[in-house]
Specification:
The chain is mainly α. About 75% of the residues lie in helices and about 0% in strands.
Length: about 250
């Protein structure tokens, strides 16, 4: 397998894991579980749960780490969320939600043990410097069962790629709103709490493509330091299979 094939496999891993975890994060069942856990506002459960690995931080710091969300929105959700359960407990609740989602909707997918094993090889050798959410999540305990553990590992790897991407985006000078508009359009941008009107970033389209290339290039280096070419291809194939199983099993 040549460099181009490895690079393509790494892109497939990132896309499949990103979409799979996005399904979990945005699903009504996940929001319902957050409400059941005591969060009147499920978005507060999301911010406190995902960011709880940062510990007793303030809303300003958490907003800086989340990067692509409107800061006041993130800070308010954080303050509300940690007021319910605290940071450590919020992260534990959210990690258990990830595992539970995997148990319900990944069971029967091919190679879940291998997704976890290969992903953990990457996590074991990839330090968390400059990647605070990834650094926090890589230290969280993992479930013993294959579907729960596989989705948790996918979650950690998604945080790894997101952290790399956020760094490249910050250096590029592209604003979060411009990035959202270039990536997903108006409705997508609204999900992140930013007020209208939205700058469309059309004059930075080429620069945004460079950010994506820089992110993928670095992720190829990271996965290549932990896995051989065949293992990267295997992780790509199994990740896409897990995503397909999730999409087939998750209720609409």
């Amino acid at each position: 397998m040549g460099h181009a094939e490895v690079d393509q496999s790494v892109r497939q891993v990132g896309a499949a894991m990103g979409e799979a975890i996005g399904i979990f994060m945005l699903h009504p069942e996940t929001f319902g579980e957050s409400i059941a856990a005591g969060y009147a506002n499920p978005l507060a459960g999301y911010v406190a749960g995902r960011g709880g690995v940062l510990g007793a931080a303030n809303g300003t710091a958490v907003s800086a780490v989340f990067t692509v969300f409107e800061p006041n929105f993130t800070g308010a959700c954080w303050d509300e969320g940690v007021g319910v359960r605290g940071a450590k407990d919020a992260a534990e609740v959210y990690s258990n939600q990830v595992a539970g989602f995997g148990r319900r909707y990944l069971t029967g997918a091919e190679g879940l043990d291998r997704i976890a094993a290969l992903g953990e090889k990457v996590i074991a050798v990839t330090p968390g410097g400059g990647l605070p959410l990834y650094a926090g999540w890589r230290s969280m305990p993992l479930a013993e069962d294959a579907p729960g553990r596989a989705l948790q590992v996918m979650f950690v790897l998604r945080e790894l790629r997101a952290g790399v991407h956020f760094g490249a985006l910050t250096l590029s000078g592209i604003t979060p709103v411009e990035a959202h508009m270039l990536h997903g359009g108006h409705d997508y941008t609204m999900m992140f709490g930013w007020p209208e009107p939205f700058a469309d970033g059309a004059d930075k389209k080429d620069r945004y493509a460079e950010v994506e290339e820089a992110t993928n290039r670095r992720m190829t280096e990271i996965l290549g330091a932990a896995l051989d070419h065949d293992e990267v291809a295997e992780l790509a194939r199994l990740s896409e299979g897990a995503l397909a199983a999730l999409k087939a099993n998750v209720p609409g």
